[in-house]
Amino acid sequence: MASTLTVADVVGLLEQRYPPRTAEGWDAVGLVAGDPDAPVRTVMFAVDPVQAVAEEAIAAGVDLLVTHHPLYLRGTTSVAATTPKGRVVHDLVRAGCALYTAHTNADSAAGGVADALADLLDLRERQPLTPHGGAALDTLTVFVPREDTTAVLDALAAAGAGDIGDYDRCAFTVAGQGTFRPGADANPTIGERGEVAEVAEDRLEMTLPRERRAAVVAALRAAHPYEEPAFSVVEHATHPAGTGIGRIGTLPTPTTLRALAERVAAVLPATAQGIRVAGDLDAEVSRVAVCGGSGDSLLGTVRSLGADVYLTADLRHHPASEALEAGPPYLVDATHWASEWPWLPVAAARLEEDARESGATLRTHVSTIVTDPWTLRLGAPDNGTTTDNEGVTP
């Protein structure tokens, strides 16, 4: 019989996929409202924590609402129902529906918002636009009398050494012979002052996060039987991680800017704005950069990486105009909501999969309410002018 997960359980599953530590420093991610011990049977995913979405979740009897955008990004001193955000909190809490946010940590994760957008275009050989730095790691090497190796290893593991992926207490040992001569002022555990001692020792090596170095060395000194243990710490070279904001990759076959834009319009959910395109519509494009949400801050990065075209949202007039003056990348501009929505069904499917692997069953629902703020696009009135790519012609 399948077990029932709690809010805390589901949050744990989500944070395995979208670790909060990878969120930008200015971001606000995590559990916003709800009892961690409350049971969860149904989860809904949406982009925005707005009133219409809250009402949809409540009507569907959802136990946990997961949104991409934070409800309170800049903090608040009140959740009174006299404000739109406060009303969302009150309505969800009253209905027993928790609220959780996965924002920039979901943007950058493997299988997150950026990858979901890249998947729609079948981008190959992709990499992040701004990769996360690889984890800063050290390797500690210490020589230990053989009968004390297990105790020292356990102490190092308890201090944070030896965690690799889903494994802990990872270590490597090699048997050998240690030799030393205690000085006149030494207080040796083994041997006599002024006399050469030989001891059967193990060379013990463990990897540790660099931020745990001081704690691990302190644990080593406390657990090691020698007055002056022989050890060294070597820093690993850091390499960019496979996660980070945005993605850049190559289309399966080159196409034109017009054809690519038409494909974007076909695969993204429809909004009143539609898709805006800037550049030579007949130009051949192959290398494509994507960034869900507001992406004009990355225009320089995209150019430096050699992209032919950049798909993002919320492009502003001056950054877009200046970028085009410098040549490719050409620009394809969607709405913020539409560029991030494709992640929702991916996240829902993966949460169901992770729940099954934990022995539980979850039902998920993906909101299709268009929460893009613009609801209507009007053409220019017939005022005796026409517009084209060259400008306004009387």
Mean pLDDT: 91
Continuous helix count: 12
Radius of gyration, rounded?
A: 28 Å
- Strand numbers in spatial order across the main sheet: 7-14-16-17-18-15
CATH architecture of the largest domain: 3-Layer(aba) Sandwich
CATH-assigned homologous superfamily of the largest domain:
NIF3 (NGG1p interacting factor 3)-like
What kind of sheet is the major sheet? 6 strands, mixed
Provide the number of structural domains: 3
The first-level CATH class name of the largest domain: Alpha Beta
Low-pLDDT sequence parts:
384-394
Find the structural class using helix and strand composition.
alpha/beta
Gap from first CA to last CA: 74 Å
CATH topology of the largest domain: Udp-n-acetylmuramoylalanyl-d-glutamate--2,6- Diaminopimelate Ligase, Chain: A, domain 1
β-strand amount = 25-35%
Report helical residue fraction: 25-40%
Per DSSP E runs of 2 or more residues, the count of β-strands stands at 21
What would you call the shape?
globular
Family: Belongs to the GTP cyclohydrolase I type 2/NIF3 family.
Subunit structure: Homohexamer.
InterPro entries: DUF34/NIF3, DUF34/NIF3_bac, DUF34/NIF3_sf, N-reg_PII/ATP_PRibTrfase_C
Region (Disordered): 375-394
Notes on the structure:
By secondary structure, this protein is an alpha/beta fold. The protein folds into three domains: 5-106 and 342-366, 3-Layer(aba) Sandwich (Udp-n-acetylmuramoylalanyl-d-glutamate--2,6- Diaminopimelate Ligase, Chain: A, domain 1), CATH 3.40.1390.30; 113-132 and 244-337, NIF3 (NGG1p interacting factor 3)-like (Udp-n-acetylmuramoylalanyl-d-glutamate--2,6- Diaminopimelate Ligase, Chain: A, domain 1), CATH 3.40.1390.30; 137-235, Alpha-Beta Plaits, CATH 3.30.70. 28% of the residues lie in helices and 28% in strands. The protein is built from twelve helices and 21 strands. It has helices spanning 7-17, 51-59, 84-95, 104-108, 113-120, 149-158, 213-223, 257-267, 299-304, 317-325, 336-340, 343-357, and strands spanning 5-6, 30-33, 39-40, 42-46, 64-67, 98-101, 124-127, 130-131, 137-145, 172-180, 197-209, 231-235, 244-245, 247-256, 276-278, 284-294, 309-313, 330-334, 363-366, 386-388, 391-393. A six-stranded mixed beta sheet has the order 7-14-16-17-18-15. A five-stranded mixed beta sheet has the order 2-6-5-4-19, sandwiched between helices. Strand 4 (42-46), helix 2 and strand 5 (64-67) form a beta-alpha-beta unit. Helix 2 (51-59) runs parallel beside helix 3 (84-95) and helix 6 runs antiparallel to helix 7 (213-223). The chain is globular, with a radius of gyration of 28 Å. The chain starts with a strand and ends with a strand.
